[in-house]
């Protein structure tokens, strides 16, 4: 019997897959537990349409991320922080601070997609943005002393 899986079944199939399974397995286990439905022509057509829409969405997102990577390439992000003696910061500048600064510049990027060493001194460092699968770009993070007034 051909079934469309509604949920992941370990060792058998992933959600959304169309697969041939034994009749008894489908009727007695998969269908009653809601893990799969019988594959009719209408459901198969719907599954294919859903997959095509998902591919279009992913391709659009990939193009958007490539465009963003081109915009951000070699961009300098300036972060102001309090510093003490010998240009040492009170605390550290982390990827969360860089994500916030990028968000203020109009490029909201999740902090988990930014890899860099925590900065504990004034100066510059490189940060790598992992925007999408195989799409990365590097930016420069410049930490400047906050003016005390």
Biggest pleated sheet: 4 strands, mixed
CATH architecture of the largest domain: Roll
Numbering strands along the chain, what is their spatial order in the largest sheet?
4-9-8-6
Shape: elongated
Task: Calculate the terminal CA-CA distance, rounded to whole Å.
Answer: 76 Å
Rounded mean pLDDT is 91
Quickly name the level 1 CATH class of the largest domain.
Alpha Beta
Radius of gyration: 25 Å
How would you characterize the overall build of this protein?
This protein has helices at 23-30, 41-72, 95-104, and strands at 2-5, 18-20, 36-38, 76-81, 88-93, 114-115, 119-121, 123-132, 135-145. By secondary structure, the protein is α+β, with helices and mostly antiparallel strands. It folds into two domains: 2-60, 3-Layer(aba) Sandwich (Ribosomal Protein L9, domain 1), CATH 3.40.5; 69-145, Ribosomal protein L9, C-terminal domain (Ribosomal Protein L9, domain 2, Roll), CATH 3.10.430. The protein has a four-stranded mixed beta sheet. It is elongated. 15% of the residues are buried.
Write the layout of secondary structure elements.
Layout: E1 2-5, E2 18-20, H1 23-30, E3 36-38, H2 41-72, E4 76-81, E5 88-93, H3 95-104, E6 114-115, E7 119-121, E8 123-132, E9 135-145
Parallel strand pairs: 4-9
Antiparallel strand pairs: 1-2, 1-3, 5-7, 6-8, 8-9
For this entry, give a set of tags.
single chain, 149 residues, alpha+beta, Ribosomal Protein L9, domain 1, Ribosomal Protein L9, domain 2, four-stranded mixed beta sheet, three-stranded antiparallel beta sheet, 3 helices, elongated
């Amino acid at each position: 019997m051909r079934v469309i899986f509604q949920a992941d079944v370990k060792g058998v199939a992933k959600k959304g897959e169309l697969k041939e399974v034994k009749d008894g397995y489908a009727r007695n286990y998969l269908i009653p537990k809601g893990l799969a439905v019988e594959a009719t022509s209408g459901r198969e057509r719907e599954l294919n349409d859903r997959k095509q829409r998902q591919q279009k969405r992913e391709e659009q997102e990939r193009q958007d991320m490539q465009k963003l990577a081109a915009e951000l390439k070699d961009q300098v992000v300036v972060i102001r922080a309090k510093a003490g003696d010998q240009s040492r910061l009170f605390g550290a500048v982390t990827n969360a601070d860089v994500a916030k600064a990028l968000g203020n510049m109009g490029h909201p990027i999740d902090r988990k997609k930014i890899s860099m060493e925590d900065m504990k001194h004034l100066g510059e460092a490189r940060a790598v943005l992992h925007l999408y699968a195989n799409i990365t770009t590097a930016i420069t993070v410049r930490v400047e002393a906050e003016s005390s007034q």
